[in-house]
Fold this protein.
Amino acid sequence: MSLVNLHQVHKYYGDHHVLKGIDLDIKAGEVVSIIGRSGSGKSTLLRCINGLEQYQKGGITLDGKEVTTDDIQVRRLALSVGMIFQNFNLFPHMTVGENVMLAPTIVLKKSKAEAEATARAMLEKVGLAEKFDSFPEKLSGGQQQRVAIARALAMSPKVLLCDEITSALDPELVGEVLKVLEQLAKEGMTLILVTHEMNFARDVGSRVVFMHQGKVWEQGDSKTLLSNPQTDELKQFMGAVL
Amino acid sequence: MIEFSNYDILRNLLFATQWTILLSLAAFVGGTTVALALTAMRLTRNAIMRTLVRMYVELFQGTPLLMQMFLCFFGLSMLGYEISAWGAAILSLTFFTSAFLVEIWRGCIDTLPKGQWEASRCLGLSFLQTLRFIILPQAIRVATAPTVGFSVQVIKGTALASVIGFVELTKVGTMLNNATFEPFKVFTLVALIYFMLCYPLSLYSKHLEKKFNVSR
Amino acid sequence: MLYFSDLLQYSDVFFSGLMTTVELTVLTTFLGVALGTTCATLRQYGNLAGQRIVSVYVELIRNTPFIVQLFFIFFGLPAIGIMLSPWEASMIALTINLGAYSTEIIRAGLASISKGQVEAAKVLGLNFRQTLTRVIFIPAFEKIYPALTSQCIIVMLGSAVISQISVQDLTYAANLVQSRNFRAFESYLVTALLYLGLSILLRFAFNALGKRLFAYRSVQ
């Protein structure tokens, strides 16, 4: 049974044809890395999956339900899809704990005590239990991103979307974030990542999707595909990245 | 003719200042209330609402406050709606204040990264929840300094109410001038009183701005 | 009922009022921005005394109503021997008013120019005046151009007040017409729309000028 299904998805920005008929089927527990040059449409694809961007043709279903940008629909989606952004998007006027507790209290209507317990557990999980009362600006980029992960996890999502979540980090901080992701993958969380981290894609990911010019150019098992790319475009891309 | 001593002049002016302050307060309260509603309208994704707000701003920022007062005062009464100078002044100053505040606040809200909206959306917050918990608390911090700064414009704007006959500081100034024939003294005093009302607010606004920039 | 046709016979009154407002606006915009540029330069690069004087001027004007400034100049100054016609008093008051506001705005533009630009000019052997006119002014104005445009429009709209010292501007025309035909609402509404047209026109003119001044932006 597929968790996320895209069928012939087309997306335009005005005249610009960004996604040209994407077919993709992702099962629960998969760790899918979407790779490709900038402008290949990979971030747009991710943002269509949780309704942040409107697509014009085709269909996306999540757990069997259709995805639209309709406000109510997006809110329902938020219950099953978590999203982590490149630049964290933590709420600067709230403490770390408040950031994580906010959505569970006002969206899921959990009691404060329950939400706090969840928040502490999630922060523990990303290794930041002691930062509960700190403000985001006092944290390093890597720590902020881990808080963002905890914030998404607190909503117990079925799938986590990660949009280049290590790209804004200093190189020495990338590892701590990837380690958290690896842990989540081991626990069976479904992850869809847009990423430039090839090693992570190969070692942790179960599947790699290579996007080129708005299409899924090539995809397959991560180890096989990355060690033995079929198309010239992927070979070129890997040559440029490595 | 009655003789006016310096004391009489000052006493009359200070008495009139109360009306200037009262009118300013009323206009500021009215203006912020309307501006809040307009800001909420503008933030919705409804294109008609946003166009309406844009037209409102264009109309009241693009025409003289004095003309708005004339329209509210002479115009409305010609159309059969009796309105006092006090009412017309409050009404037109409310239009004026809200049209500028809604623009100022929009600027403040726009400085917040788009990611704040997106993150809220991804966490399942509704539009109103996003406004209340995420956008407003941050926007208010940014908006306080320019809003206090704009209150100076409101106080100065109330001076125009003298033209439609509302008896406040400027009106009493012209009346005293006609009675004493000492325009230099009278208008210097009037200007000084306005300055003493406005300058502290200007300073406070600057102080807030500095404080905010440091804390960022 | 509204009777706009009753206004038609007064179209020449409106037109001459409009022209007076346009004339004063064009003149005071140039003079005011020139004054503002001078004061801003003094404030940013001048000696302490110059900075102080400019500060006092700016704060005094910004914290008092325009109508009081106008009355002070027109009614008050004759008491110390300075006689001015309504037109002259208005022009001076508007220039001084715009000058103060534009000083604040332009100074912010000057402050935004990095030290590196000034140093680079110095190293190349430009003197202070050349550095200002050739290196600093254009990018500084570009930064604050929208704010300056808005301020000029605000001052133009504020000029409606000069009708109170019987300058025969657009507002004066509106008052005159409504006192003759008692069509206050129509008269003021038409006048308000004329002002709206003027402010749109002024913004348009500023944009056109801006395109020329900052042409280097479009040449890439």
Residues 38 and 161 of chain A are 18 Å apart (CA to CA). Chain A has a mean pLDDT of 90. Chains A and C do not touch (no CB pair under 8 Å). The radius of gyration of chain A is 18 Å.
